[in-house]
Amino acid sequence: MLGPRPVFLLGALLPIMVALAALFVRPSGRGVATRAPAAREEGPLGGGRARLVLIGGLAYAAFSVGLEALAVPFAQEIVLAVSGALIVLLLLRIGLSRAVAVSAFVIFLYRAVPSVGQGYTYWAIDRLKFDAEFLGLLAQVSSVLSLVGLVLFRKPIASRPVSFTITWVSVASFILYLPSIGLYYGVNEWLGLSPRTFAFIDTTISAPLGQLAMVPMLVLIARTAPAGAEATMFAIMASLMNLALSASELFTRYLNTTFAVTQESYEGLGRLMITVGFLGLVPLLAVPLLRREEARPAVSSVPAPEEPRAQSPSNAL
User: Fold this and answer.
1) For the whole model, what pTM was predicted?
2) Predicted confidence (pLDDT) at residue 162 exceeds the cutoff of 60
3) 162 Cβ neighbours under 8 A, 6+ residues apart
4) What is the DSSP annotation of the chain?
5) Which of 19, 144, 146, 289 lies most in the core, judged by the most C-beta atoms within 10 Å?
6) What is the C-alpha separation between 288 and 131, in angstroms, rounded?
7) What average pLDDT does the segment 2-17 reach?
């Protein structure tokens, strides 16, 4: 076993390796001289506006660190609200169409669903006697099967409407979450299975949904990005996903406080898990809105080909 310090060291070296690898990337020289000046002036970040965004990002980071350093009450909530306002301003900058607004709402709602938190892990270690080695095994199996499911099902998911994918992924996630709730209430004992066997089977069945849930989000971004601002739209939506994950962590903390689930107390864990399971169905509320948007005729950004001009008799000769 490597131990915690070598593992954290390896994790810290990964972004450094990526940054060093970027130094060896060389853009293609073909057409750079002719296209670069125009590219700098066009688009939502052209005309020097990228520098303004960079300065604003640094100021926002300093603002967030300052709130935490000064221990301002509700600092996380304030940062979350300011982040949301900045993302809305960026969306308005690139063009906040109806399709973009619906996509942003669906993505935020889908990713902001809270989780159980660490209370379940503490309970599994304390009551079920799951050691770090077995929990690591479950995490590895879940990661591998998630990638396998992504490779096998990415094309069928990308070809279907996003509303359809969100519906069946949400329902399937709810159904596959029930065994975890059953494990807390001792369903494995009724079935004659040990807790480890029951947890391993549950992880094996539910793991492929881990990465599949990201596919409809990426498809939604690709389909609603304005022409010429695809990269900018993806960056903003990625920020929106991170904002939604922060909101999810905040909601998770609220739920753990409400049900009094701590590292020492697990009495409310069962009710917390049931609540989280039903909250996982909340994204279904956005499906009718998404279906109406999908039913709208798509406006093509590709210009129609010009009709051939009739040739004069002299030209025809």
Assistant:
1) 0.74
2) yes
3) 106, 216, 219, 220, 223, 290, 294
4) ---HHHHHHHHHHHHHHHHHHHTT-----TTHHHHHHHHHHSSTTTTTHHHHHHHHHHHHHHHHHHHHHTT-TTHHHHHHHHHHHHHHHHHHHH---HHHHHHHHHHHHHHT-----THHHHHHHHTS---HHHHHHHHHHHHHHHHHHHHHHHHHHHHS-HHHHHHHHHHHHHHHHHHHHHHHTTHHHHHT--HHHHHHHHHHHHTTHHHHTHHHHHHHHHHHPPTT-HHHHHHHHHHHHHHHHHHHHHHHHHHHHHTT--SS--TTHHHHHHHHHHHTTGGGGGHHHHHHHHHSPP---SPPPPPPPPPPHHHH-
5) 146
6) 44
7) 78
What are the tens digits of pLDDT across the range 105-160? 888 888 888 989 888 888 888 888 888 788 888 888 888 888 887 788 777 777 78
Q: How far is CA 171 from the centre of its chain?
A: 18
**Closest listed residue to residue 243, CA positions, set 62, 13, 18, 64:** 64
Structure tokens at 172: 């399937």
Burial per residue of 162-173, b for 16 or more beta-carbon CB atoms within 10 angstroms, e otherwise: bbebbbebbeeb
pLDDT one-digit tens code per residue, 90-100: 788 777 778 77
- HEC secondary structure over 209-237: HHHHCHHHHHHHHHHHCCCCCHHHHHHHH
Angle between helices 230-258 and 269-279 (to 10 degrees): 150
- Please compute Rg for the chain using Cα positions: 25
Given this model, what pLDDT does residue 67 score? 77
Which residue bears the tokens 């009551």? 127
Yes or no: say if 167 and 287 are a contact pair by the CB < 8 Å rule: yes
Which residues, in sequence order, are CB contacts of 163 under 8 Å at separation 6+?
A: 287, 290, 291, 294
> What Å distances lie between residue 172 and 55, 143, 168, CA to CA?
43, 18, 6
